[in-house]
């Protein structure tokens, strides 16, 4: 598992490099945008984008994990239609030149853009420092599956706003909300056991104007609970803080305002980023009442929260449960689709969710919402 974690950290950093290159090269960025249609349309957004970067990053991970190829899942299909109406299947080839040649067919013969992207794909990232040597977990790749979201909060990534806030505050929107998410789950139970989060646009480099990223990781299996983040210190005043989507139902906002007070409700973009805010202690709980997130959004950060003693539960099941203790039956799982749905909705978290670090805070939130939804 230590080897797998190191490899995931490296691949996530490579994915972050691709995300940065795609934003830095205006010519390349314009070519990479296509709208989702049909069954794969994410209903939450009026205009939701699919990028070639999403597809390429997912294929890059398949390339690095050949023995797990059939169990690496993501949001995007690897079929891409170019400007000529031709359908091209994108894969990572054995050499940079071969990948560039394939990408040029997607990019309508733009060899400059294809070469820039191929170089980012094949370039080895900087060494990731992570204390993983003593990590011993008795699991083999044949027991595991992977969920990838190569660019979570795609709309924020494409819009590309740069928010500036004081340290210790969450970012309501902008590039900081765009994340690379790689989550590992047990094939037989769907339990999330490892997560890697890379924030490609964590802070600006003063000289040159480029971006540097930051990575987070966690492992939770049996008696092993290890995370790159520490549990945040207890806040003053004892009042809960909750992060929501700005489009959350009014009844939820009102119920949580009564629980926390209006100054303790915060809003941010991106499901993965909102769960990261809970991991970092920028918020205590993330609540979402709608089924607008997917397995690829929640798997990676869910594993980190489990390593910290928290979790991510199905909100609907949680409101129906009579148990006041931590109930494994209401935790999100990642191995089974909703067979009655089509396209991306087969993998939606249909019951909504609550992400939390502390079980007592989960109980407070569900208590406030019970009977309201």
Automatic annotation (TrEMBL):
EC number of this enzyme: 3.1.3.57
| Class in the EC hierarchy, top level | hydrolase
Presence of keyword Thylakoid: no
The catalysed reaction is: 1D-myo-inositol 1,3,4-trisphosphate + H2O = 1D-myo-inositol 3,4-bisphosphate + phosphate; 1D-myo-inositol 1,4-bisphosphate + H2O = 1D-myo-inositol 4-phosphate + phosphate
Q: Which GO terms describe its biological process?
A: phosphatidylinositol phosphate biosynthetic process
Q: What top-level branch of life does the organism fall under?
A: Eukaryota
**What is a single molecular function from GO for this protein?**
inositol-1,4-bisphosphate 1-phosphatase activity
- Pfam families the record matches: Inositol_P
Q: How does it assemble?
A: Monomer.
Similarity section: Belongs to the inositol monophosphatase superfamily.
Know the name of this protein? Inositol polyphosphate 1-phosphatase
Organism, per UniProt? Labrus bergylta (ballan wrasse)
In the record, what lineage is assigned to the organism producing the protein?
A: Eukaryota, Metazoa, Chordata, Craniata, Vertebrata
